[in-house]
Amino acid sequence: MSEVMLRSAAIAINHTYALPGQILHDGDEIAILPPVSGGTFLADNPNWQIALVRETIDAADIVRRVKSGEDGAICVFDGTVRNNSRGRQTLHLDYEAYEEMALKQMLLLRAEAIEHYGVREVAIVHRLGRLLVGETSILIAVASAHRGAAFDACEWLIDTLKKTVPIWKREQFIDGAAWVDGEPFPENFIAR
């Protein structure tokens, strides 16, 4: 990895972003992560709220699970594969992730959204593998007593996920393919 590439990378130790000056110990797992782009999900999974899946995302099922009688609002972000990007026709997308860390980061985002925005429930499900035009790549559902908190939490979740969760996207165009340049990591994540 070149020095230029390293300046925009983040370092993770044991599936958690490393802090400056953090000390390594025998057996630590180290990952150098390029900027990110934006477990198996089972119907009987007790941790259904956070998942990386390789099958079609069932938005109706997730919304049904998130809803409760005390909620006045369910805000849903359904990110889909579009047929073009940067003026080029898109055939499909391929998503990859550093799965263990991605799941851990998604759990942290869920907890932070619940605490900071006061929402009752959050589900984040991201698809991996090959996705065709029109398919859902990510579904975020936020349940809250009031719509403002649900909207704010949902927007914060997708914006933060695209900057911090190690998931990468490769776009296949009719005339070639490219890994999508990720959004910059927050300043405190970047290796120095």
- CATH domain class name: Alpha Beta
| CATH architecture descriptor name | Alpha-Beta Complex
Total of helices? 4
CATH superfamily: Molybdopterin biosynthesis MoaE subunit
Number of strands: 12
Distance between the termini: 14 Å
Helix and strand element order: HEEEEHEEEHEEEHEE
Description:
The protein is an alpha+beta fold. The chain has one domain (36-182): Aldehyde Oxidoreductase, domain 3, CATH 3.90.1170. It is built from 4 helices and 12 strands, in the order H-E-E-E-E-H-E-E-E-H-E-E-E-H-E-E. The chain has helices spanning 3-7, 59-66, 99-117, 147-164, and strands at residues 10-13, 16-17, 30-33, 50-53, 73-80, 84-85, 88-97, 121-127, 129-132, 136-144, 167-173, 176-179. Strands 6, 7, 9, 11 and 12 form a 5-stranded antiparallel β-sheet that branches. A 4-stranded mixed β-sheet has the order 4-8-10-5, sandwiched between helices. It has a 3-stranded antiparallel β-sheet with strand order 2-1-3, with helices on one face. Strand 6 (84-85) and strand 7 (88-97) form a beta hairpin. Helix 3 (99-117) packs antiparallel against helix 4. The longest helix is centred in the middle third of the chain and has 19 residues, at 99-117. The relative contact order is 0.23.
